Amino acid sequence: MTEKQQIVELRTAPHLRQAPSVDQIMRNVVYALLPVCAFAVFQFGLSALALILVVTLACVGTEQLFCRLSDKPTTVGDFSAVITGMLLALTLPPGFPLWMAAVAGFVGIALAKVMFGGIGFNVFNPALVGRAFVQAAFPVAITTWTPAFAPGRFTEFIPTTWTLPFVQPESVSTWVKNVAVDGFSGATPLALQKFGDATHAHINIDHADLFLGMTAGSSGETSALLILLCGAYLAVRRMMDWRIPAAMLLGAFLTSGSFFLLDNQAYPTPLFTLLSGGMMLGAVFMASDMVASPTTPLGVWVYGILIGFMTVIIRLFGGLPEGVMYAILFGNAAAPLIGAFTQPRVYGTGRNKATKP
User: Fold this and answer.
1) 321 with 194: CB under 8 angstroms?
2) How would DSSP label each residue in 207-252?
3) What does pTM read for this prediction?
4) How far apart are the C-alpha atoms of 285 and 56, rounded to whole Å?
């Protein structure tokens, strides 16, 4: 074969491949979330299962209700409301009262999705809007944590699960003593780091426990390994832009690493920052929301790095131990501007002429 000869690959028709539909993408996201939900139930028991079911049903029911009220065809079958419910439940404490959880589901769909015109028009991630509402409305309940792998978690509910409106729930600390859980401080690793020893940021938590999900926290945020594996499934199937979670984790790593280098006693390690709290869940399943994130090649990196940066700043200097939720909502708000300023240049034109005919 001479240098000028080339190999031509012949393939049979069809040569064009149809892009996956919205229903197919949403259904695969549900598949990816199922292992995370299963681990939450394994870790926290019946209360986590009830929480996931109630929030998901509240989201689906709210969407169906507004479809009926507006005399529009039902959109429940596209699975978007199911995803919102699953994600929202995974961001809540496992013992969160179910009536509050239902309120979160209603607000997430009604306020962040229906009011903006439905799927494809929402500016903010609906699950995070629902979570932000209940964090403001019920600050005590949303910061009440329970131990992971408690004995009897499959035979009894966490007492706060069935708390009724305007009723004082049973003390979680009393329940923890009754189920013989020793050494549980009632705080997540992030809370211990934030509100523990003010002169020392390093707490006695094994990074392996954070990676595998052996700590207290929100229902579905604890296992970084499982979340990464589920995200890899979506990325391999090209149903998630892997650059967004990669950029968010990179932004968080660089920001936290910079502070750690300045004072390694006052600030946590970059690895702790990546593995703790809702960092992984937010990066993989929430920041990557196709509707609320930019689509330009440069924009997705700017967007993700911005969220990672904001998360660390809120964690270190804000009044709350966690910053993922507010950082992603901030990124959602900035996404249109990021997309506008990162439009690729049309070949043969200047950048300022890229959008002109």
Assistant:
1) yes
2) HHHHHHT-S--STTSS-HHHHHHHHHHHHHTTSS-THHHHHHHHHH
3) 0.87
4) 16
